[in-house]
Amino acid sequence: MIQIYIPLNFLGVVYREIKQNLTDLDKMFTLMDREQEIADAPDAQPLELPRAPTVRFEDVHFAYEPARPILQGLSFEIPAGRTVAVVGPSGAGKSTLGRLLFRFYDVQAGRITVDGQDIRGVTQQSLRRAIGIVPQDTVLFNDTVAYNIAYGRPEATQAEVEQAARAAHIHDFIAAQPKGYETMVGERGLKLSGGEKQRVAIARTLLKNPPILIFDEATSALDSANERAIQAELRAVAQGKTTLVIAHRLSTVVDAHEILVMDAGRIVERGTHAALLAAGGRYAQMWALQRHGGAQPAS
Ligand code: ATP
Questions:
Q1: How confident is the model over 30-52, as pLDDT tens digits?
Q2: How far apart are the CA of 265 and the centre of ligand 1, in A?
Q3: How many other C-beta atoms lie within 10 A of the C-beta of residue 232?
């Protein structure tokens, strides 16, 4: 009994960890032969997406545990092909928005729609295919760099993998390894830095080429040259896609179509960078503080 309990318990922990990190879980569910918490509706249809869609959160309420509401009636829209950024203090519920859009959890009230289709009414496979995630901490598989990049689209050719790696500015680093794209990475292979892992995630997302993107910005600061380069790459990837940016640094959000300032599960301010600065409220305070703190925001 003990022998069975320990590994299952361990897998549970790993599962929760990865779920928190918004990683694609399909393969892991297969490996674990574990039933998903979120099931397709019996009449679920594939999500129909002719192009970058409009994503809408409508009066969304959500709690991980019933006694502790996290999102308390949130409404916003990401127009087709635009970027909406979410900022706010730690624990405000920012990353939860991404988890709900990817449908790791279902909302308790309200709804989330993609081009008017409630995400609870479409197949999870089609929803998750339509969304690319660059998570806070990219989980790499104990496999080759090529496998890790191609994970978003396993049928991709080597030339396509390299093209994505070049666009994510990780090709030269990979090519410099003795085994190149066949270099093993992950726990038992080459250890990559935070910035390198993010670049692998960007390359993976470029290859997958989904119409919807979620960027959950890393909390750990990269050095500023690296950070600027990654921001430029993310901007290029987001071009023409419907993008949700969960931002920990304000420098990432300046160009967003709309910035949502969240606190304790509510939107307390919203607008463009210029409008929010002019309003002189929470966002303007955060901006001044970040400047004062020396984390030079791009302007
Ligand atoms: P940060 O900027 O620190 O990443 P955040 O604004 O993204 O924070 P969330 O990760 O969305 O915050 O979490 C919102 C709240 O929900 C936090 O109080 C967190 O402790 C709680 N929470 C997150 N995941 C779970 C979970 N799986 N079970 C229970 N509570 C959770």
A1: 444 444 578 888 888 888 777 89
A2: 10
A3: 12
Q: How far, in Å, is the centroid of ligand 1 from the Cα of 144?
A: 32
Q: Would you state the pLDDT for residue 195? A: 82
pLDDT value at residue 252: 79
Task: Give the C-alpha separation, 225 to 296, whole Å.
Answer: 12
Supply 90's token pair.
């730690």
93 lines ligand 1 (CB under 6 A): yes
Ligand 1 mean position, distance from CA 261 (Å): 16
The confidence score (pLDDT) of residue 139 equals 79
Distance (angstroms) between ligand 1 centre and the Cα of 219 equals: 13
Nearest alpha carbon to residue 117 among 39, 205, 38, 58: 58
**249 C-beta closer than 6 A to ligand 1:** no
CA 16 – ligand 1 centroid, Å: 13
Q: Is the CB of 220 under 6 A from ligand 1?
A: no
Strands, E assignment, 176-252: 212-216, 242-246
Q: Is 40 exposed, middle or buried (0-12, 13-18, 19+ CB in 10 A)?
A: middle
212-216: strand order across its sheet: 131-134, 212-216, 242-246, 83-87, 258-263, 266-271
Two tokens, residue 271: 């607008």
pLDDT digits (tens, 9 = 90+) for 209-264: 899 999 988 665 566 777 777 778 888 888 899 999 998 878 778 889 999 999 99
Q: Ligand 1: which of 13, 57, 94 to mutate, most ligand atoms within 8 Å of CB?
A: 94
